[in-house]
């Protein structure tokens, strides 16, 4: 059995593995151009996994992640004994260090010219990578960690957002959770064009992501319309057993002040109950976008970007092109 075949079975048993690292997402985003590291203990038990995408650029090999992944990185299966007793913190760090050393060793055996990935917020320790010459910098996402209590959830939303939600409700706007794919893609393309931007969804086969998410029961298209059925806002919603993710947002810029995007998020939080535990706004370092997410009571959560150049030639080329990882 190949690593990928085994990983498919691992993902079936562990729905808590982040959706961006799930077998079906890796297949949808990368086709055959991906693989996975599987880390085992002395008893041959799987203790960690790390899927990765494989890219070719100018004849060089890059080990990375798809552009539409917030994060991949290692996923660790901690044994219960790690968290027992007064030495729990020590045991956890030692356990992680052994896993990361094995990952680093396996990465070197791939003979790539460069490695980079964003690690899940679950991974807060990158010291073994630092010791091995990897560079790191911090990125952020915004998360609502508990979406179970509607009353508590609404009370944490800023007054201005609450007013937008109520305004949209009074106008009779309706949020649904199964819009046609073609309509979504056309709407997303149009809203980006109105803002003078190229739509990244045109760069990739995004239909496949949506179809696979629906087939696996881990995603859908969300939209809000007015009483005449006019589409005002839409996004792609995906989730695992721990978190839901808010991606590929499209908004009618001329009518965004009517509250449709705010209502759409609120209705989505209600829709997700019983499906997952928390809501992730899928990260942004943009000041304006971050401000909007904070108004929903979301917490600022760091995650780390880790990279290493194995090839000096590719590093120089990357710097000359202005695309180098500089930190």
- Specify the CATH architecture of the largest domain: 3-Layer(aba) Sandwich
Low-pLDDT stretches: none
Measured as a percent range, the helix fraction is 25-40%
Class inferred from helices and paired strands: alpha+beta
Q: Measured on Cα atoms, how large is the radius of gyration?
A: 21 Å
By CATH, the topology of the largest domain is Aminopeptidase
Shape: globular
H/I helix tally: 11
Please provide the ordered H/E string of secondary-structure elements: HHEEEEHEHEHHEHHEEEHEHEH
Strand content: 25-35%
Mean pLDDT: 92
- The CATH class of the largest domain, by name, is Alpha Beta
**What's the N-to-C terminus distance?**
39 Å
Number of strands: 12
The CATH homologous superfamily of the largest domain is called Gcn5-related N-acetyltransferase (GNAT)
Major β-sheet annotation: 12 strands, mixed
Structure characterization notes:
By secondary structure, the protein is an alpha+beta fold. The chain has two domains: 3-139 and 304-321, Aminopeptidase (3-Layer(aba) Sandwich), CATH 3.40.630; 146-276, Gcn5-related N-acetyltransferase (GNAT) (Aminopeptidase), CATH 3.40.630. The chain is built from eleven helices and twelve strands. It has helices spanning 3-13, 23-30, 88-109, 127-131, 150-155, 159-170, 181-194, 206-215, 260-271, 287-294, 312-321, and strands at 34-40, 46-57, 60-64, 75-76, 114-118, 135-144, 174-176, 219-225, 231-239, 243-251, 278-280, 299-309. Helix 6 (159-170) crosses helix 9. It is globular and about 60 Å long. It starts with a helix and ends in a 6-residue tail after the last helix.
């Amino acid at each position: 059995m190949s690593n990928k075949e085994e990983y498919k079975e691992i993902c079936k048993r562990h729905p808590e593995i982040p959706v961006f690292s799930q077998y079906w997402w890796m297949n949808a985003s990368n086709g055959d151009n991906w693989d996975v590291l599987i880390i085992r203990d002395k008893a041959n038990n799987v203790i960690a996994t790390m899927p990765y995408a494989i890219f070719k650029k100018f004849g060089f090999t890059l080990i990375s992640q798809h552009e539409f992944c917030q994060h991949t990185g290692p996923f660790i299966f901690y044994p219960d004994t790690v968290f027992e007793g007064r030495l729990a913190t020590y045991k956890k760090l030692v356990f992680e260090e052994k896993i990361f050393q094995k990952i680093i060793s396996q990465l070197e055996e791939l003979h790539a010219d460069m490695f980079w990935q964003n690690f899940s917020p679950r991974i807060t320790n990158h010291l073994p990578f630092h010791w091995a010459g990897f560079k790191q910098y911090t990125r952020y996402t915004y998360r609502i960690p508990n979406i179970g209590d509607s009353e508590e959830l609404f009370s944490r939303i800023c007054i201005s957002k609450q007013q937008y939600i109520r305004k949209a409700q009074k106008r009779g706007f309706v949020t649904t959770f199964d819009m046609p794919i073609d309509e979504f893609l056309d709407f997303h393309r149009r809203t980006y064009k109105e803002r003078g931007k190229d739509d990244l969804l045109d760069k990739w086969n995004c239909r496949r992501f949506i179809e696979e998410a629906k087939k696996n029961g881990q995603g859908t298209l969300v939209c809000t319309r007015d009483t005449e059925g006019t589409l005002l806002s839409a996004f792609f919603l995906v989730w695992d057993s721990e978190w839901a993710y808010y991606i590929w947002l499209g908004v009618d810029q001329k009518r965004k002040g009517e509250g449709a995007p705010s209502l759409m998020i609120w209705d989505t939080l209600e829709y997700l109950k019983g499906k997952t535990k928390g809501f992730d706004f899928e990260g942004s370092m943009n000041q304006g976008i971050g401000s909007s997410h904070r108004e929903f009571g979301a917490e600022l959560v760091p995650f780390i970007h880790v990279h290493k150049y194995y090839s000096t030639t590719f590093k120089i080329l990357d710097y000359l092109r202005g695309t180098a990882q500089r930190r």
